[in-house]
Amino acid sequence: MTNFAILPILIPFLAGILLAFTHKRILLTRRLAMMFALINVAAMTFLLILVLTEGSIVLETGNWMAPYGIILVLDPLSALLILTTSIILLAAVWYAPSSVSEEQESFYFYTFIFLLVTGVSGAFVTGDLFNLFVFFEVLLMASYALITHGGKKVQLRESIKYVLINLFSSMLFVTAISYIYAVLGTVNMAQLAERAAAADQLGIITTVAILLFFVFATKGAAFPLYYWLPRSYIVPNPVVSALFGALLTKVGVYSLIRTFTLIFHQQPEIMDQLFIWIGNLTMLFGVIGALASRNIKLIVAYNIIPAIGFMLVGIGIFNNDGLSGSIYYLLQDMIVKAALFLLAGTIATLAGTSDISKMGGMIRSHPALGWMFFLAGLVLAGVPPFSGFIGKLLLVRGAFEKGETATVIIMLLTSLLILLSIVRAFIQVFWGEGETGSEQKRKHLRHLIPAGFLMLFTVFLGIGAEAILPTVQHIADYLLNPQAYMELVLKEGR
Amino acid sequence: MEIIMIVLAGILFGFAVYNILQKRLLRIIIGTALLSHAAHLFILTMGKLKRGASPVLTEGTENYTDPLPQALILTSIVISFGVTSLLLVLAYRTVKTNGTDNMEELRGNNHD
Amino acid sequence: MIIAILMPFLIALCIPFIAKFKYRIHTGYVAFAASLSIFLYFLTLLISGKTDILYHYSWIPSLGLDLTFYTDGLALFFALLISGIGALVAFYSIHYLDLEERLGSFYVYLLLFMGAMLGIVTSDNIYALYTFWELTSVSSFLLISFWFNRKASTDGALKSMLITFLGGFALLGGLALLHLVTGSASIREILTKGDLILGSDWFPLIVVLLLLAACTKSAQFPFHIWLPDAMEAPTPVSAYLHSATMVKAGLFLLLRFTPVFRESEAFFIAVSIIGLLTLFWGSYMAVRQTDLKGILAFSTVSQLGMIMAMIGYGTEAAIFAAIFHILNHATFKGSLFMAVGIIDHETGTRDIRRLGGLWKLMPITGIISVLAAFSMAGVPLPILNGFYSKEEFFASSWDLSADRAFGTGFASVLADIVPYAAVAGSIFTFVYSMYFYFRTFTGKSETTVAKKAHDPKFGMLLSPVLLVSGVILISIFPNWFSRHLLLPAANAVYGETMEAHSIHFWHGLVPALLMSLIVVISGILLYSTRSYWTGLYKLLPGRLSGNNVYSVILNASEKQTKKLNDHIVSGSLRQYNAIIISFISILTLLVLFGTNSFDLSNMDTSPVSLPQSLPELAVAVIMIAAAFGSTVSQKKLTAVIILGVVGYGLSILFVLFRAPDLALTQLSIETITVVLFLLCFRHLPEFKRERKEKLSKKITNIIIASLCGLMMMLVGLAAYSQRLFPAISDYFIENSYKLGGGDNIVNVILVDFRGLDTLFEITVLAIAALGIYSLIKLRQKGGDR
User: Fold this and answer.
1) Looking at the predicted structure, is the pLDDT value of residue B52 above 90?
2) I need a surface site. Which of A93, A252, A389, C237 has the fewest CB within 10 A?
3) Alpha-carbon distance C304 to C315, whole Å?
4) Residue C505 burial by CB count (10 A; 0-12/13-18/19+): exposed, middle or buried?
C-alpha cells in the first residue's frame, strides 16, 4: 500500500511519456490526454480518501530507509494539493483543443503539460530537500518548454527573462542546500527538522533558512521578487497561463509552508515578522500592479501576487487560524486563478485584443462568460459565501489573535482593491456601449465549459466549505506540531 | 583549504552576478555558467575536502571523501547542462526573432 | 420561517425561466406575489404575538458560520418593512418598467436583495449577517447599473460598491473581533457578554470598524457621496433600496448592538456627532439640488443622519423615536420617490427648473406629494406622521441636555449642544421639502413638459397611495403602531422593557413643540425669501463633500498606480536582477550578523601547505583570472573560450579533491557547452558595438556583484564552521557494497540510494531536448497575443 505514494508522480509521468509517442496523431493524443487526466483525478481522489481514513502514506523509494534514501510522504496536505492539481490539469486538457493550434498540439504540448504536473506533484510529495530541487527543475524545465511553445516574438522576449531569473534562484537553491548539509549533515526533511529542533546554535540555521526563503519566494512571486511574473505569464497560450497561475507560484508557497513549519520555525521572532511583512508588501504591490493594468490578462496575472501575500501572512501568523487560512486560500486560489486565466483568455480570443479599453458591451452576446468573470472577481475579493471568503476570514481572525492589526487592515484594503481591479475590468469589458465579440456568439461554449467546471469547484469550496475545512484545520494542527511528521518518516531510524 | 575554496566560490559568484547584470544576452548566459560552477564548488566544499580517498571502495582504506555531495553535484551538473542548452537555443531564437541581443531593448511594455 | 427568508432566493433562481414568458405575464407579478406572501407571513407572526421563532442550520461550523434565524421585535419590525415596501415596489415597478427592459435580470436582483435584507435582520450568526450584508451590496451594485450602457449608471454603481464594500470589509474585521473577544458568533450570546466587550482592549477598534460599516451603508457623512449617484438606478430601486431598506441596514447594525454600545460614552460622542453632521449636511445640500431624485437622495442622507443621532443618544426615548422615524421615513420617502417616478415617467424630466404647475395636471400625484413632503418637513398637522417622530426627536434631544447626570466631560458638553444642532439641521429639511413640493406642483412649467403630463394609470398610483395612507394611518393611530410594532422593536434594541410609550399630537407647551415651531417659522422665512439666500447655499462648497476625495483616489488608483508600477515592473531584466539580488544579499547579511551567527571558531579545515597545496592554489588563481578575463573580454569568442577555462579548472579541482566521477562529467559537459555556445552565438554581433556603459551603472553592478559574492562567501564560511551534526554519509560508505553491490559509492548513491533523483534528472534532460526541438521547429507567426 505504501507504493501508492508514487502514483501522483507516476501517472502524469507515464502519461507524458506515452503522449510523446503519439504526438503526431492529434486526435488520439487529445483523447488519451483527457483519459489520463480523468484517471489522474480519480486516482488522486482515491488517494486523498485513503490518506484521510488510513493515515499518511510514507514510501521509502528503493526500500532505503529514511534518512538515507529518498522518502515520499503523502500526508493530507500533499494529498489535498495533488487532488486540486489534478482537477486543474483536467480543466486544462479539456480547454486546450479549443485554444491551442493543432500544430502546437503536435509539438509535444500534452507531454509538457503532464510532465509539468509530474514535477508539481513530485514537489508536493517528496520528503527530501534535494529531491525537491530535482522536481523543481522538472517543473521548471517543462514550464520553459511551455512558455516558449509557439515561439512568438513577445513570448521569446518575456520567457528568456523568466528562464534567467528562475535559473538564478535554482542555483541559489542548490547552494543553500549545501549550506544546510554542512550545518545539519543531512538532506532528509524529517531528519533536518529533528536536528534543527535539537540544535542550540540557531542563528546559522535561520540565516540559511532566509536564503531558502528567497528561493521559494522567487518561485512564489513575493515582493520584491515578483517582477518576472506578470508579463511572462500572459505571453503563452491561456491554457499554459492557467496552469502557471494555478500551479507554479503555489509550489513555491507550498514549499514555504512545508519547510518553514517543519524545519525552520526555530526563531519565530524573526521568521514570523519576515513572513508577515513580506506578505503585506506583496499584497499591496501586487494589487497596485493589477490596478495599473489595462490588459485583461495582465489584470488576472497581477492578481496572483496579492493572493500570495495572503498566504505568506498566514504562514507568519503561525497559529491554527492563520495556517488553515493560508492552506485554504492556497487550495481555492489554485482553482479560481486557473478559471480566471481561462476566462480572460476566452475574452481576449473573442475580442481579438487584450486591451480592455477597446472592448465594451460584451455581456449582450456572452452573458455566461460575463457572469462567470464577475463571480470570479467576487471570489478573489473574498466576498461571502464564496471560497475566497473562507480563507480570508480565517486569516483575519488569526491575525487578530496574534495582535497584527496593521496586517488585517492591509488585508481588507487589498481585498477592496482587488475587487476594484476586477469590477472595473468587468464594467469596461461587459458593460457600456459596444458589441465586442457579438459576431462569435455561439463559438465560445467549448471555452466556457472547462472554466465553468472550475467555477463550480470554487463555489463548492465556498458554500460546501464544511466538507474540506475540518481537514484543513486538522492539517494546520499537524503542521504546528512537526513531531508527527518526524515520527512518521523516521519511525524505523530508531 | 576549504576557506580558500569558499573564497574562490564566492568570487566566482560575484563575477557571475556581475555578468548577469549586463545587458548583452551572451554576457548574461556566461554569468549563469559561472554561477553553476560556483554553486558546484560550494557543494563540494561543504562536504569537507581531502579527508580521505576517492569514494571508490578499495581494500585497506578507512577514510573516504564524503560521497553524498558528489552525487548531488553530478545530478546538478546534468540538470544545469540541460538548462544551459535550452537557454542557449532560446537566446539564439530570441536574438534572431527580436533582432537584438540587448536585453534593455527587450523591455516591452504593459500593453502587449 | 426559513422558507420565508429563502423564498426570495428560490424564486430568483426560477425567474430567468419565467422571464421568457414576459410578454404573457409581467415577471413583476411573480416578485410581487412572493414579497406579499412574505409580508403576510410576518404579519401573522406579529398578530399572533409569536415572536422569537428560531430556525437553525449548521452551515460551516468549523468557521463558526451557522444559519440561525430568529425574530425578535426588531427583526420583525424590519422584516415587515422590507417585505411590505418590497411588495409595493414590485407592484409599482410592473407599471414603471416596459416589457422591453431586461425584466428577468431586474427581478432576480430585486429578489436577491430582498432575501439578503431579510437575512440581515433575522440572522443571529454574525458571519451569516455579514454574508447577507455583502449580498445586499452586490445586488445594489447590479440594480444601480441596471441600464448598464449608461456611463453614469456604471460609475454610480462602482462608487456605491466601493464605498459599501469598504464598510463591508470593515464589518468583517469588527465581527471577527467580536467573535474573538466573546468567543461566540451568536449575536444573542454576544449581547450577553457586554462587559467583556466594553472591557476589552479591542473595544475602540470594534466601534470604529462597526461604525465604518454602518456609516458607509447608511450613507453618513462623509461616506454619503455614493447615495446621490446611486439615483441612476430605476426609480423603484431608489425607492426601495436607497431610501427605505438597504440604507437602513447600517442603522439596523447599530441598533442590534446598542444594548452593548450604549454603555459607552465614546459611542455616544461619535455617533451623535456623525448623525447631526449628516443631518445638517444632507439637508443643506438637498436645497442646492435641481434633480428631483437628487433632492430626495440628499434628504434621505439627512434623515438617516437624524436617526443615527438618536441611536447615538441611546436613551429610552431616543431609541423609540429612532424606530418610529425609520417607519415614518419609509412611508413618506417611499411615496415621494414613487411620485418622482411618476413625474419622470409622465413628463420625461426630473429637472426641477423645467417643472412646475403640475398640480392641475396630476392632482393625485400632487396630493401624494404634498402629504409626504409636508410629513417630511414636520409640519404640525395631526395627519402627518413625520411631525410625530420629529417631535420625539426634539424631545429626546432636549431631554439629553436637560439631564444633568448625563455624560462626563466632552459628552456632557455635547449633550448641551445637541438640541441646537437638531433644530439647525431640521430647518433646511423644512426648506427643501417646501422647495420640492412648490417648485414642482405650483407655478408654471415649460410648455413642452406640461403638455402631455397627466396622472398615470391606477396600477402605478396604487403603491404610493397605499404608502401615503400609511402616513395618515400612523398619524391617526400612533399608539396602535406603537404598542404592536414599535415597542417590541424598541425593547429588543434597548435590552430591557420600556414603559409603554404613548404618542400624542398635543403634548402641551413643551420644549419640543417650541423647537418645532422655530423650525417651521424660520423654514418658512428662509423659503419665502430664498432668492436672497442663494449665496448661503453656495457658501459651503460641494468640494467639501468628499466627492473630490473619491475621484482623486479613483483616479490615482488608475494613473498613480500605473506610474508606480511601470517604474517597478519596468521590463528591464537588469533592474529585476539588481533589485532581487541586492535585496537577498542585504537581508541575508543582516540576518547573519543580526543573529550573531558569523562564528568561525570551530573551523575544521584541511591544512594548506606549500608546496603540496600548490596545484590547488594555482588552479584557484587561474580560475579567478579566467573569470575576470571572460568578464572583461571584448570579443565573444575569447569570452566563451576563457569561460571554458573556468570549467576545466573546476574539473581539475574535482580531480584534486578526489572526485573522479565529477571531474569526468564536468570535463565532457564543459566541452559540449563551449561548443554549443559557439554554435549559438556565431552569428551574433560582437561586444564592440556596445555603447559605453554609464560609469555609475557599472559601479552599481560591481557593488551588487561584490555584495552577493561576499554574502555567499560569508554564509558559506559560517555554515562550514558550524557543523552541528555528523553527516549521514557514513551509512553510504558502509553499505555501498554490502547493500548496493557497488564499489563506486557515488555511483551507488546515484543509481540506488537516490535513484529517484537520477530518474528525474534524466527527465529534465529529455524535456530540455523536446523543448529545444519545438523551439527550433515550431514557429508560429502572428501578433503579440
Assistant:
1) no
2) A252
3) 18
4) middle
Domain housing A463: 267-481
Contact C130, C175 (CB under 8 A): yes
Average pLDDT over chain A, rounded to an integer:
92
Smallest CA–CA distance, residue A288 to chain B, in Å, is 13
Q: C94 near C459, Cβ under 8 Å?
A: yes
Give residue C188's identity as a one-letter amino acid code.
R
Distance from CA of A176 to the nearest CA of B (A): 9
Per-residue pLDDT reduced to its tens digit, C325-383: 999 999 999 999 999 999 888 888 888 888 888 888 888 999 999 999 999 998 888 88
Give the C-alpha separation, A378 to A394, whole Å.
17
Residues of chain C contacting A118 with CB distance shorter than 8 Å: 763
Among the residue ranges A247-251, C392-396, C589-593, C700-704, the one predicted with the least confidence is C392-396
Contact C770 A20 (CB under 8 A): yes
Between 1.10.287, 1.10.1060, 3.40.1440, 1.10.10, what CATH number should domain B2-51+64-99 receive?
1.10.287
Mutate to test the interface with A, among C175, C181, C569 (most CBs of A within 10 A): C569
Whether B69 contacts B46, CB under 8 Å: yes
- Which chain B residues are Cβ-neighbours of C706 within 8 angstroms? 14
Phi-psi region of C596 (alpha: psi -120 to 50; beta: other; left: phi over 0): left
Tell whether B63 lies on the interface with C, counting CB pairs under 8 A: no
Q: Does B55 touch chain C (CB under 8 A)?
A: yes
Query: Most C CBs within 10 Å: which of B19, B73, B84, B85, as the mutation test of the C interface?
Result: B85
Identity of the residue numbered B58: T
The amino acid at residue C487 is L
Scanning the structure block, which residue is given the C-alpha cell 556581475?
B18
Mean pLDDT of C583-599: 92
Going from the C-alpha of C308 to that of each of A325, B17, C224, C376, the distances in angstroms are 36, 63, 13, 17
Residue A395 lies in a domain: yes
pTM over 0.90: yes
User: Average of pLDDT values for C609-618?
Assistant: 86
Residue A154 lies in a domain: no
Alpha-carbon span C409 to C721, nearest angstrom: 66
* Contact assessment for residue C19 and residue C107, using Cβ atoms and an 8 Å cutoff: yes
- Same domain membership, residue C382 and residue C526: yes
Dihedral (C-alpha) B58, B61, B64, B70: value to the nearest 10 degrees? -10
Number of H helices, E strands in chain A: 22, 2
- Terminus-to-terminus CA distance in chain B, angstroms? 53
Q: What share of chain A is helix, strand, coil (3-state, %, to 5)?
A: 80, 5, 15
Residue C42 forms part of a structural domain? no
